[in-house]
Amino acid sequence: MPQANILRPVPLEADWREQLRNVITDGPSLLAELGLDAAALGFSEQACRDFSLRVPRAFVRRMRPGDPNDPLLRQVLAIGDELTSPAGYGPDPTGETGGAIARAGIIHKYRGRLLLVVTGGCAINCRYCFRRHFPYGDNQNSRREWRQALDYVANDPSITEVILSGGDPLVADDDYLAELCGHIAAIPHVRRLRVHSRLPIVLPDRVTPELLSALSPAGLQTVMVVHCNHANELDTDVARAFAHIRERGITLLNQSVLLAGVNDSVAALVALSEALFAHGALPYYLHLLDKVRGAAHFDLPEQRARELHAAITAELPGYLVPKLVREIAGEPAKTPISPARGPH
Ligand SMILES: *Cc1c(COP(=O)(O)O)cnc(C)c1O
Ligand code: SF4
Q1: Which parts of the sequence belong to the Radical SAM core domain (predicted)?
Q2: Which of 23, 96, 122, 206 to mutate to test the pocket of ligand 2 (most atoms within 8 A of CB)?
Q3: Half-sphere CA count of 161, side-chain side, radius 13 A
Q4: How far apart, in whole angstroms, are the C-alpha atoms of residue 274 and residue 246?
Q5: Residue ranges per domain, the chain?
């Protein structure tokens, strides 16, 4: 794609807030726009009542009209399969509502780094999300509650990295983020700020100069981990957002979830890694699905995941192979999944 296009400046009157207000929440009209039949695709209003349908138009524009198997549509469409609840799929597969919540709004599971739950909101509702049942109401950090969370970080010198998470932390506005990041930067033992967000993918106009300033306080190195599962999610708008992020010296990584019917083929995973690098991001993690209730239809056998990972390892340079990991409650880090054994 042409460089001139990628480097076109973000318009000053960036309308991300309006786009956020105008996300699509109505399944039948989304499907009608794509020329698809709601009944044939298994669309379910009941599944929407459990976890609402929510998708920005900027993301819908990258879906292929008339394709019932579109990998982007599959990630956001509420279907009847979600209403089945096979054994082993629970409301809190990663154990976040257990002992890991040290204070309201903090998840401190791993040594040296912790998650700050900045907001419960997301621009998009991904049907496989492990936080679809997370009690965000109890973890909304108001400015007043920051004090507590920041004191917790300040009082633990082992914490060198603070991760802004959610929901999606970039749903919060720039002033809020600038103030929060300024407070984090003022804690002497914190060296890195990490931001986990899907917004640069699903609503790339969110990446404004003001946002990037807020996320780059003096004295901290910033890492942004975006979340993209399929090469079709990456277009020229995303490329432009990525370029702006990188121009600020922010390290740009991607995490994906391995999802049946979305990216569970060697071709899809190779194309994803290649497209990420072409757009300026490095693959970081490929997560096995967290066994959250309502998402069982996205799961695939662990052996199949190992085989896919072995196959992409054989196809790609090492730096384009994401680490295949699973989140196991109580473990000190994400658990790497060892490669497939035996004949291929
Ligand atoms: C995934 C996660 C992290 C970050 O882990 P890394 O392996 O450093 O990317 C930190 N805290 C929690 C609670 C997490 O779930
Ligand atoms: S953007 Fe992230 S937190 Fe929000 S629904 Fe999707 S996967 Fe879950």
Answers
A1: 108-331
A2: 122
A3: 16
A4: 18
A5: 16-83, 96-336
Find the ligand nearest to 284 CA.
1
CA angle 18, 24, 25 (to 5 degrees): 120
Q: How far is the CA of 333 from the centre of ligand 1 (A)?
A: 7
Domain 96-336 falls under CATH 3.20.20.70 = yes
Q: Calculate how far, in angstroms, residue 117's C-alpha sits from the geometric centre of ligand 2.
A: 13
Paired tokens of 7: 């480097």
pTM: 0.92
Which atom of ligand 1 lies at the shortest distance from residue 225's CA?
Answer: 9
C-alpha 69 – ligand 1 centre gap (Å) = 31
The tokens describing 183, both together, are: 């407070």
Question: Residue 171 is encoded by which pair of tokens?
Answer: 């749903």
Ligand 2 touching residue 53 (CB < 6 A): no
Angle at CA 123, nearest 5°, toward 120 and 125? Answer: 80
- Structure tokens belonging to residue 32: 């009608």
Tens digit of each residue's pLDDT (9 = 90 or more) over 259-288: 999 999 999 999 999 999 999 999 999 999
**302-328 pLDDT, tens per residue?**
999 999 999 999 999 999 999 999 999
